Amino acid sequence: MDTFSPAEYLRAMRFEDLIAPVSTEEFLRDWYGKRPLHIDAENAGRRGLLDWNKLNELLGLPSHWTEANIKLFFKGVPVNGDLYLDSVETLGGTVRRANAAKLDVFLQMGATLLAGAVHEISPPVRALAVSLAEQFAGRAEANVYGSFKGIQALASHFDVHEVFAVQCEGEKVWNLYENRANAPIEALRADRAQAVMDASKGRVAMQVRMRPGDLLYIPRGFCHDALASAEASLHVTFSVTPLDGRALFRMLEEEAILDPAFREYLPDGRGSDALDLAEHLTSLGERMIRILASRGFATRLADKQRQLIDRNVALTLPERRKLDFYARTQQPVELRHEPCELLLSSAGRSLSLGSAARAAEWILDQAGFSSQQLAATFPYLGDAEVADLVRRLEEMGIIFAYEPEM
What we know:
alpha+beta; eight-stranded antiparallel sheet; 14 helices; 19 strands
């Protein structure tokens, strides 16, 4: 696998490069979540993202191509994985991996290749995925599609995430239909799902011929399909999935369970106690509203969004940098949970932890640690937040700097 130096990461394609010449402000105002956008190959920077030679190299990394990361389709039908996956004995146990020779047989027949999670093994693709995640506060992943002229892999469908497709080799014609699913969170899976899709997608509203370097943005819910028009087509699809409203319910449960009122049995509403149940539910509802409206809840939600973003870490071996070590003192510490907030008290002083709550709890469980280890364990915290937490705990006498014997 290729490696990126820190300087190369800085030069890698970012979101603003991806959508150029459209500005980020224009994209967010006029296109994001609203309508598809096609940008042609005048921006040559997108052309170098991936090519056939690079894909062939990536396919030579057998450990990545497990059952979850590679699929074949032939004329719209998934190929049975037993026909191209082998059970392989490894030091970690038995895994199912793609057999390159078997893959090649189906590809020679014209099967479409779906190579998943390419952002995990291609530094340029990963750098762009990270930039997309940073821009939209969502999980970003990248799949590669290799297909051949006139052989359609996927029938008309909609995605439950934002789509940014970059054409890398050959040409492909995309059809986007006039009807759109309303904020979908899962794909149709009923027995007649495809028939329902085809009946409801409407007419073709936009047809795009993608050439190397072109970008196509498709908001979630827009029905579409595509077909290679050149002998062979290669494109990378980036999916971006921000949090939706379901995250509130998961967080609300985590927070509400700290309140004894939510741990009590509910009144029996089957008979004369029905009014008691209604009043109890009203009381719990008011408590939920207070939680949702608190600043602490918004802070925790923002932390969840930050945790969706992977970080580019460029190693600099064989360089060894000096680490900053700290150890716990024996000074007693009390942690107190307030609504959506964690307060730390020690030696007559208190500290509201905010976004650093989980990091502070982790520190209190360690006999010793380095600030670099803390930053690596909680990568969603910025360098300034890590430094501020360490400084405050040191000032309160909870930790102290030391030099371990290595």
